[in-house]
Amino acid sequence: MIANYMYEYSDIEELWFVVSPHNPLKERTTLLPDHQRLEMVNLAIGDDVRFRSSDIEFRLAKPSYTIDTLTYLQEKFPGREFILISGTDIFPTFHKWKNWVTLLEFYKLYVYPRPGSQDHELTRHPSIRMFSAPQVEISSSFIRQAINEGRNVSHFVPEKVWKYIKEMHFYEN
Question: Does residue 100 share a domain with residue 31?
Answer without folding.
Answer: yes
